[in-house]
């Protein structure tokens, strides 16, 4: 089995700060916009895939922004 470090898929509002100039308030707003766009209930979290689709960027770019230390040992 591969022992590579893996990123989380489920996200929290604060994970979106890199896309919102570091603003917690804007991150909360973006999180809700994505959730509404996808049609998720409040009890269901968004994922990196939802962010990718909403922002129309590569999944790798999403992961690099949210998990910048992923490739570092």
How does this structure look, described?
- There is one protein chain.
- Helix 2 packs across helix 3.
- This protein is mainly α and 73 residues long.
- It has a domain of 47 residues.
- The chain starts with 23 loop residues before the first helix and ends in a 7-residue tail after the last helix.
Helix/strand-derived class?
A: mainly alpha
Uncertain runs with pLDDT below 50, 5 residues or more? none
What is the number of helices?
Answer: 3
What share of residues is helical? Answer: 40-55%
Radius of gyration: 13 Å
Features:
73 residues, mainly alpha, 42% helix
Summarize the structure.
The chain is mainly alpha-helical.
SSE map:
Layout: H1 24-38, H2 48-55, H3 59-66
Helix pairs in contact: 2-3
């Amino acid at each position: 089995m591969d022992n590579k470090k893996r990123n989380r898929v489920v996200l929290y509002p604060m994970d979106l700060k890199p896309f919102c100039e570091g603003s917690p308030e804007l991150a909360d707003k973006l999180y809700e916009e994505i959730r509404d766009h996808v049609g998720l209930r409040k009890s269901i979290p968004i994922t990196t895939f939802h962010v990718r689709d909403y922002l129309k960027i590569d999944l790798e770019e999403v992961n690099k922004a949210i998990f910048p230390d992923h490739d570092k040992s």
